[in-house]
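Hey L., structure's done. Input below.
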Amino acid sequence: MQKVHKFRFSVAYADTDAGGIMYHGRYIEIAERARMAWLGKDAMPIDDDVGLVVRDLHMRYMRPLFLTDEFIVETRVTAVGAASISIEQKFVKNGEVCGILTGTAAYLNSVGRPVRLPDNLAKVLANETN
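Output:
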């Protein structure tokens, strides 16, 4: 069974457009914060590596989030490769999914080439998919 990590967030004025709806680009920033809170120091690059870099993202919006809405970003690993990870992040308000972000990140070395995930990160990710 896949583990789900939860990150709480509240929509502030700076997150919204003129109509009080959370701006679509903010979902990506909030998703990144949730990923960093989840992985913490284990996602930090080692030596001169660049670290995890987003390779692709897909965002599906189902329901808008508004100023002062409180919601949770649920993050789960969907696949772990030798040099990459795929995740799914759901934006959930009161049990209702408002959006789903899926994406893949590759682990890059100092010259921007994919390399194997460091052992500490690979171990953390292996525990996430069990």
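The chain has a mean pLDDT of 92. The chain is about 20% helix and 40% strand.

-- N.
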